[in-house]
Amino acid sequence: MRRQWVFDPHSGGVKIPPAVRTRTVERIEKYAAKHYAGKYTCLDIRFHGPLCYIDAYVEPEEPSTKMLKVTGETRQQFLERLRAVPLHLCRLRYFAEDRWSIAFFTYSNERYEPSAFANGSFDGTPEEAFELAAIYLR
Q: Per the CB 3.0–4.6 Å rule, which of 78, 81, 100, 113 could disulfide with 73?
């Protein structure tokens, strides 16, 4: 049996050059501000090798009296704690300026799971990735 190389959009990738990092942050922030203003308080976009992580911070819902009793916190303590916890939107893997793969963070097993873009493709742009991941924003 002959071995054959197969492209895997969810492994490998290319280290992201500094100029591409800067442009990517600008692109994502611009897209998010235009289409999702008010749905998040701030974004945290960071890079590691070929990966780009996009997290959002959101304003938590008001806690019920019952919830405050369970947690043993004041309303202010509860809100401050939740404001400091990021919502992991997605992780992108870089192959070229407009060729990224996407993975979503699964809270059930605390890892990123590969996914396809909305059009069924395994690669897309940072803006397409944010649009898909924004489902997690209220």
A: 78
At residue 71, what are phi and psi to the nearest 5 degrees?
-80, -20
Indicate yes or no: pTM above 0.85. Answer: yes
Would 121 be classed as within a structural domain?
A: no
Contact by Cβ (8 Å): 51, 14: no
How far apart (Å, rounded) are the C-alpha atoms in residues 108 and 121? 25
- Does residue 78 sit within a domain? yes
Q: Which residues pair with 60 in a beta bridge?
A: none
Between CA 49 and CA 123, with CA 106 as vertex, the angle to 5 degrees is: 50
The pLDDT profile of the chain, 138 residues, written as one tens digit per residue, is 777 655 677 788 899 999 999 999 999 999 999 999 999 999 999 999 999 999 999 999 999 999 999 999 999 999 999 999 999 999 999 999 999 999 999 999 999 999 999 999 999 999 999 999 999 897
For residue 24, give the amino acid letter: T
Query: Is there a domain that residue 64 lies in?
Result: yes
